[in-house]
Design goal:
The chain is an alpha/beta fold. It folds into three domains: 86 residues, Sandwich (Immunoglobulin-like); 302 residues, Alpha/Beta hydrolase fold, catalytic domain (Rossmann fold, 3-Layer(aba) Sandwich), CATH 3.40.50; 89 residues, Immunoglobulins (Immunoglobulin-like, Sandwich). Helices cover 19% and strands 30% of the residues. It is built from ten helices and 27 strands. The strands form seven sheets. It has an eight-stranded mixed sheet, sandwiched between helices. It has a five-stranded mixed sheet with strand order 3-1-8-7-4. The longest helix has 19 residues. 46% of the residues are buried.
């Protein structure tokens, strides 16, 4: 068996081949980009590490220095120079300051820290349970927009070269504590969560935004200790299949596609959660997202799962659909939490369907847990911008009026999954860009892209063999053979790989393949 130094040398050489000529003992390239984004409660203080993009993949520890003072708060650098410190003002608004990120040899890049400061009144709205009037009209609702940072990331390109962007809200613990894990929040319907805001400042639109259960409760997840990332549908949106004009059908197909996982992972990469475990949390039709994409996560939670739907002449998908393998319980390989409301009256998500889903997961060998919610309120009369809908979010289907209790049950399960990881340091999986001529297969060695920080070894998997443009990715041991789609002479294709360790740690990343390059 090769010695550890020889194995390390082989890894360095392989990584250098994929990421460029720089290596720990060779040439040094300057960092190319840095930014910091954060939402913070007024009057509190935080320490945070900006995102830094550096061609020297091995140089992850950067030092920071201030270039300007914040407009309204105050900022400094930690004694070791590896984090920025920020004290928020007492009033809400946007703040910013400039800083420099430097590598270990002093080469640097300048960036801007942008901060959204929210006050006590806004935090109260983000944390409150929803209420209705005695007449059944919506009175108040949980809404996390005002406690979030609004962002947008380009995640991929489609076949004709058009870039795809994802809008999202990010919520941090209002206490200023470091989050213990990431929860990606995936709504239902046609995935239009109406997430909007000002890209320059990061302030989210507090007048709009969807009523979706997991989106409106993002700050409740955050205040339980999680980095909450609520996603909107991609833009441009998923294409409807031939013979259909139904946006829900198009979105259902997107939910089970590799494009969905590429978009999720690209957003997370832009946020650089630095080794935190990732959980997927989906509600209603978002249940399809978390089931189909479960393998990129440490665990998943599904609520009000859509377990039957014959819409659009049978084109709509649903969890458990026999002809869609990614929606069947045996496809699930991660611990799963199943939540439903005892009074959910929506035809596609009856409690009996959720119970059957839980039973099927257990029968398939999945480590599954369930929780049944009761009580709450429901909009029964139109008004205040809403109308009655038993399949909508302002009903038992969306846990209206019991948001704090329900999210408390859900995050209690998340806490058990984080605790189960113990002191395990999660694997690291790197994104990679490769190229191949048209009609020419390309081999990618995953052992050169991922490593186990605890030194216990990794197993690799592909969540599926189909790629974004219709090519194929086939895994044999630690090597993927990528085959471009027939007849495609140019463009960028994508596939996802997953690395798992022996202690439940999961890391996933995207390989981009330039065809004809």
């Amino acid at each position: 068996m090769p010695s550890q130094p020889l194995l390390a040398t082989a890894l360095l050489l392989a990584l250098g081949a994929l990421h460029g000529p720089a290596c720990a003992g060779g040439a040094n390239d300057a960092p190319t980009f840095t930014e910091a984004r954060r939402a913070i409660h007024a009057g509190s203080s935080i320490a945070f590490t900006p995102v830094v993009q550096d061609p020297d993949w091995w140089d992850r520890h950067h030092h920071f220095e201030l270039l300007s003072a914040p407009v309204s708060g105050s900022a400094s650098v930690t004694a070791d120079g590896r984090q920025l410190l920020y004290a928020a003002p007492a009033t809400r608004g946007a703040d910013s300051f400039a800083y420099r990120a430097k590598d270990h040899r002093g080469l640097g890049v300048d960036g801007v820290a942008r901060l959204v400061v929210y006050d006590d009144a806004m935090l109260a709205t983000c944390r409150q349970d929803s209420t209705v009037t005695p007449a059944g009209v919506l009175a108040t609702r949980t809404k996390s927009n005002g406690c979030a940072f609004y962002g947008q990331t380009t995640t991929r390109t489609v076949a004709n070269g058009t870039p795809v962007t994802m809008d999202y809200f990010v919520n941090w613990p209002s206490s200023g504590a470091a989050p213990k894990a990431v929860v990606v929040l995936l709504g239902g319907g046609d995935f239009n969560m109406a997430i909007r805001g000002d890209l320059a400042s990061g302030i989210g639109d507090i007048t709009g935004g969807a009523n979706n259960f997991v989106v409106r409760t993002a700050q409740l997840f955050a205040d339980a200790g999680y980095l909450a990332v609520a996603l909107d549908r991609p833009e441009p949106g998923p294409l409807v299949p031939p013979g259909s004009s139904d946006a829900v059908t198009a979105t259902d197909l997107y939910r089970v596609s590799v494009d969905h996982s590429v978009d999720i992972l690209a957003v997370l990469k832009s946020l650089d959660p630095r080794g935190l475990p990732v959980f997927l949390v989906g509600t209603s039709r978002g249940s399809m997202s978390v089931i189909a994409q479960n393998r990129i996560a440490t665990g998943i939670s599904t609520s009000s799962s859509v377990t039957r739907d014959a819409g659009d002449q049978g084109r709509h998908l649903y969890v458990g659909r026999p002809d869609t393998p990614k929606l069947l319980p045996p496809f699930v390989q991660r611990p799963t939490h199943v939540l439903w409301h005892a009074q959910d009256a929506c035809f596609g998500s009856w409690p009996t369907g959720s119970r059957a889903l839980y039973d099927s997961l257990v029968a398939a060998g999945v480590d599954a847990t369930f929780h049944i919610a009761t009580g709450g309120v429901q909009v029964t009369a139109p008004g205040n911008g809403s109308t009655p809908d038993v399949c909508g979010p302002l009903s038992a289907h969306g846990y209206l009026g019991i948001e704090n209790d329900t999210i408390g049950q859900l995050t209690a399960w998340l806490d058990t999954r984080v605790a189960a990881l113990g002191n395990n340091r999660l694997p690291r999986a790197a994104f990679a860009d490769v190229a191949t001529p048209a009609d020419t297969p390309k081999r990618i060695h995953l052992s050169a892209l991922a490593h186990d920080r605890d030194g216990l070894g990794l197993a690799f998997e592909l969540p599926g063999s189909a790629t974004s443009l219709g090519g194929q990715a086939v895994l044999n041991g630690r090597t993927v053979t990528y085959t471009p789609p027939a007849g495609v002479t140019s463009g960028t294709d994508y596939f996802v790989y997953v690395a798992t360790d022996r202690r439940g740690g999961v890391a996933a990343a995207v390989v981009s393949v330039k065809i004809g390059g």
